[in-house]
Amino acid sequence: MGAMMLIGSMLLGSSVRAQVPACGSTNVPAGNLTLSWPDQGPDYYYRVTLAFDPNMINILGQYTTTSTSDVINVQAGYTYGWTVERALIGASNWSGIIGTCSFTTECNSSSNAPTILSGYSGYDCDPSWGYFTAIIPFGDQGVSQFELQLSADPAFPAGSGTITQLSMAFLDTWGSPWMYYSDQMNVSNLQPGTQYHFRVRVIGDCGTGPWATRTFHTRTDPKTMNLKMFLKGPLDASTLLMSDALRTGGLIPNTPLIAPSALSTSGANAIVDWISVDVHDPVEEIPVTSYSWLVQRDGDIVDPATGSAPTVSLPLGNCTFSFQHRNHLPAYVANPINANAGSSVNLDVTQVSTAMYGTQPTATVNGRRALWAGDTNSDGQVKYAGANNDRDVVLSTVGGSVPTAIISGQYLNADLNMDGVVKYAGPNNDRDVILQTIGGSVPTAVRTAQVPH
């Protein structure tokens, strides 16, 4: 039977005493371990296989060598298996020298608490389906299982959604240290608008580790979203109606599909363009979900599939909203809204009484708010001059050399008044929209989006 000995650890930065464990040895110190086997003579080379279990199922690596020893790094609290085979140099008819031999390393400490990851911001979970992933850090002790619990009670009473995962995903290569390993629990059929508690711990050869806990909320029951906004580019100041020239010209992209009835509607409820509405965590101010909807001439926002007010589930508790359009500056609502306060959310950002984030966050047209127009390159700024300015986008769109040229019949960001025509000069041109947004008198001025991030 081949001998093994431990040498001073280089990878872990600590010394380990010399040791020659036999097969089945326990409490082998973790660190750098020299595997050695009997020399079969100069005509032979060897194939060494190392596994993370005594049955050689979870193979960590396999390699060939002409040496009769090799140094590996072993972690605390695990049972390893290894084999050595020989073959004549240049051949591959392997025969065993050392059959499956195993040894168990010592336990230095108990397992650490895992790290819990999720696809949500901690509180925004779809009641119908979700997932949570637990990750164990490098060098943890003999982990073989995860135990996971899910409960609406933070005390986790007996029987609350306990799952023990018996298989784990191992990530390693021969000669390199452990990085991490993880497992995942899927959840479904949760109650809407409910706070849940999720915790996980590891079970291994060195005992059971501490719990790591995370709290999250499921979304509310569906709410009707009564939302309203204006875009300054197509807005008529006298009628407070936006132009629907993109609709009448057949230029509005139909992906995702827009209900035919929505596109055929005329008058104040005619479709103007796509917009997006983001729902934000009011504390971190980051978006947790985003929706692509349509805005009508009178500012009402509708679902493209129905042509009526959208109905969605929202994160539990308070949330804030922001409004975006492809060639207008976004605007962020300053005050959070309680998603549980009723069956609908009513938010009219055309009203000057609706508090918005920042300084001059929107234009004012005939006493109403409207998103600033002019962001042709969608960079969150409106610039008439200087690097990356929006005026040059209009000029390049019409050809770049003849400023009186026009481009019509296309869906383009340079079409700032959204009349279906891109013009750099002349009546109703798009260049002037940029100049008006930055103030009209100082061409080097810049208008920047007033949003937290």
Structural notes for this entry:
With 453 residues, the protein is mainly beta. It folds into 4 domains: 4-105, Immunoglobulin-like; 115-217, Immunoglobulins (Immunoglobulin-like, Sandwich); 223-370, no CATH class; 381-448. It contains 4 helices and 33 strands. The protein has helices at residues 245-248, 260-264, 391-397, 431-438; strands spanning 4-6, 25-28, 31-36, 44-51, 59-65, 69-74, 79-88, 95-105, 115-118, 129-136, 143-151, 163-165, 181-188, 195-204, 207-208, 212-217, 223-228, 235-236, 241-242, 271-280, 287-296, 301-302, 311-312, 318-325, 328-332, 337-338, 344-348, 363-365, 368-370, 381-383, 406-408, 421-423, 446-448. Strands 20, 21, 22, 24, 25 and 26 form a 6-stranded antiparallel beta sheet that branches. The protein has a 5-stranded mixed beta sheet with strand order 2-8-7-4-5, with no helix packed on it. Strands 11, 12, 14, 15 and 16 form a 5-stranded antiparallel beta sheet that branches. The chain is elongated, with a radius of gyration of 33 Å. The model is unreliable at 1-20 and 165-182 (pLDDT under 50).
Distance between the termini: 65 Å
Query: What portion of residues belong to β-strands?
Result: 35-45%
- Count the strands? 33
Structural class: mainly beta
Rg (C-alpha, Å): 33 Å
Low-confidence stretches: 1-20, 165-182
Report the biggest beta sheet as strand number plus sense, adding barrel if it closes: 6 strands, antiparallel
Number of domains: 4
* Count of individual helical segments: 4
Shape estimate? elongated
Mean pLDDT reading: 83
Helix content: under 10%
